[in-house]
Structure formats: structure tokens, C-alpha cells
Amino acid sequence: MGSRSSRAQEGDRASPHHWVVIDGIVVSFTTPGAIPDELWAEYLDEVASTRPRHCLLLCAGAISLDVAQRRRLTHAVMRVRSSVVVLTDDRVTGRIARAVAWFGAKLDTYAWGELPSALAGLEVDEGTRRRLHEVAWGFHQQHGPALPRVDAE
After folding, report:
1. How far apart are CA 109 and CA 98, in angstroms?
2. Which of 14, 80, 102, 149 has the greatest count of CB atoms below 10 A from its CB?
């Protein structure tokens, strides 16, 4: 299947949010900072058009989603029936994720040290799981606090 990138990935490296589609899974990368509504709408359009079985949200630090953005995320993933896996070590981000789940989205939150467990629950082939692990680990190494390497299971 392959992958494709978001406009933010291709053009605006300073953006706090970008995404790629890897073998039909929408993988987003979020760092601290406000996410412009236009960019958030593009991301949710990607989720709606891709209709992924899974979304993988990789977060470094506290994410900045306003109430309307959280609501639109909840509606988008519920509409396409995607399961969402969030990787974060930030308490605020974890609380935001739990609030989205409370509104009905199928969402699980994991700490970065639980990366293999987070990916184990995804219904993907082993090659895709390894690729997701490498992409996630690379993002964490670049943006997160130092952790000992966590190998794929």
C-alpha cells in the first residue's frame, strides 16, 4: 500500500502537527503548539477520506487542542469507526485523550515505554507493525525525553 504525507509534512516543518498514511493507517505527529484550524480540518479530512481501521497519534509534550478541535476529532473517528492509539508521556495530553474516549471514541492511551504493547493491539501485518515502530521510535527519539530503546515485540 505504501505511504503518503500531509501538506504540513511536505511544506511547513515548524508546524506542531503533521501526518502520514502508512499502509492505510493514519499516523500523526504532534509537538507543543497551537494547531491552526485549517490544518486540523485537513487532518480530519484525511481521516474521513482514508477511513483507516486505526489511527496512531504520536505526541511529544502537551498538545494544544481546543474544545472544538477535540469535538471534531471525536466525531471524525467515530464516524469512520477507527480505533485510536495515543502515545504520550504528558499528563495533560493523556487527560485530553481520555476525554475524547469518554465521549465515545474507541481510544487507548499508552506511555512511550509501552510502544510495543500499543502496536500489538493493531490489526496489521508484521512488516507494517515494524515500520510503525520505527517511525514512532524515530519521532520519540527526536522530540521526547531520552528512554532506553524499546524494541518491537
Report:
1. 8
2. 80
